[in-house]
Inverse folding.
């Protein structure tokens, strides 16, 4: 509750004035970047999966060129995003996920891999080697299984409650048999964490897992259409889930955390959840999933909320500057760049939920024309999954000579 209260104060005190964005683009620059983006898509579609392997594969050269030329990431930032260690960990994770459960959908592996990338970034920040440890693998895999079950509106509350109870008992080291194939996989993943972080030596690891379990179970209330939740309660449920999740990331990486690390990881995770909810606001609104953005979007435009999200990010960055983390300078620039792109893309793609004046204010800062984005919305929305599908092919063609350590 201490971390939640502090984060709410940061949010409530964040400005709602228009974001201060760094780079404006002329019409000519936008047209050039549009052509570069189309060339990138052609190169992805033409990219053969059976040539070079690992981080030397041409796919990753194409991705690097795209991020640099079209989105203006710096070489220093790209040296983190596309380092040999990050790429090799990604390929290794995809292979292990397929070995663990051949029935998983590509979308589920992509969802899990996004958490691997967050944890890799934290490994970098915390001065750890970037690698796929048993706990990084297991914790990232848990949430395609559990998150999607909790968020499925077609599953009854009684079924969810029964699963939550059994899962709680397994996390609490009580004897419980899995009720089905899905639960058997979940319990196996918990076992992987136990092997790396023995319970008697690292009790905080399991306290963190119980905390995210509690927050995740509570988040099932966000599917309610009854109107019983207040705006403040919705906000608390959303950010508690994000904050507890990334705190658990830290425990999976280090086994234990100091107070400084716990506070930063909670704030960072809560903020990532807010960014994610902003990006998904259109889908959440249409599907009836409550977040602080979708709940407000039913009644009014959400300009102020998007602005608060931007300025809250600056506060999170400022807090990192005062901490003694390794490699924080480059991490800060990378996070700042990502925040700007997240907010920009969210406003432009869900433009009907914002005032026309607010959307228009963003147009100069978009690297491509808004009209271009609207015409190609389906293509643009599909390309991250297209790239990940290529990555999966590369991963599965490789001989897995690396072992989870």
């Amino acid at each position: 509750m201490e971390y939640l209260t502090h984060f709410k104060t940061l949010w409530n005190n964040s400005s709602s004035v228009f974001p201060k964005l760094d780079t404006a683009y002329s019409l000519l620059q936008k047209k050039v970047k549009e052509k570069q983006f189309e060339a990138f898509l052609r190169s992805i579609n033409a990219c053969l999966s059976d040539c070079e392997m690992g981080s030397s594969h041409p796919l990753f050269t194409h991705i690097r060129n795209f991020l640099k030329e079209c989105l203006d990431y710096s070489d220093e930032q790209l040296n983190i995003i596309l380092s040999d260690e990050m790429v090799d960990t990604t390929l290794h994770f995809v292979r292990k996920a397929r070995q663990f459960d051949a029935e998983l959908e590509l979308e589920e592996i992509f969802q899990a891999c996004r958490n691997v990338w967050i944890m890799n970034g934290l490994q970098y920040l915390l001065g750890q080697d970037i690698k796929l440890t048993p706990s990084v693998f297991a914790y990232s895999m848990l949430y395609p299984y559990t998150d999607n079950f909790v968020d499925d509106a077609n599953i009854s509350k009684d079924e969810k409650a029964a699963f939550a109870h059994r899962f709680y008992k397994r996390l609490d080291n009580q004897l419980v048999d899995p009720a089905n194939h899905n639960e058997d996989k979940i319990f196996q993943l918990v076992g992987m964490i136990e092997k790396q972080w023995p319970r008697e030596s690292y009790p905080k690891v399991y306290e963190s897992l119980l905390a995210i379990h509690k927050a995740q179970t509570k988040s099932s209330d966000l599917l309610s259409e009854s109107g019983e939740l207040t705006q403040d309660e919705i906000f608390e449920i959303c950010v508690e889930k994000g904050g507890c999740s990334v705190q658990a990331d830290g425990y999976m990486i280090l086994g234990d955390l100091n107070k400084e690390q716990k506070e930063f990881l909670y704030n960072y995770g809560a903020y990532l959840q807010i960014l994610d909810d902003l990006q998904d606001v259109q889908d959440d609104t249409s599907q009836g999933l409550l977040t602080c953005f979708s709940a407000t979007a039913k009644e009014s435009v959400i300009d102020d909320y998007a602005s608060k999200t931007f300025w809250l990010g600056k506060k999170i960055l400022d807090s990192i500057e005062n901490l003694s983390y390794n490699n924080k300078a480059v991490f800060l620039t990378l996070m700042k760049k990502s925040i700007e792109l997240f907010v920009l893309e969210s406003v432009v793609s869900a433009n009907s939920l914002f005032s026309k004046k607010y959307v228009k204010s963003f147009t100069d800062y978009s690297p491509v024309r808004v009209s271009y984005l609207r015409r190609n919305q389906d293509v643009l929305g599909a390309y991250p999954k297209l790239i990940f599908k290529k990555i999966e092919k590369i991963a599965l063609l490789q001989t897995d000579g690396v072992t989870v350590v």
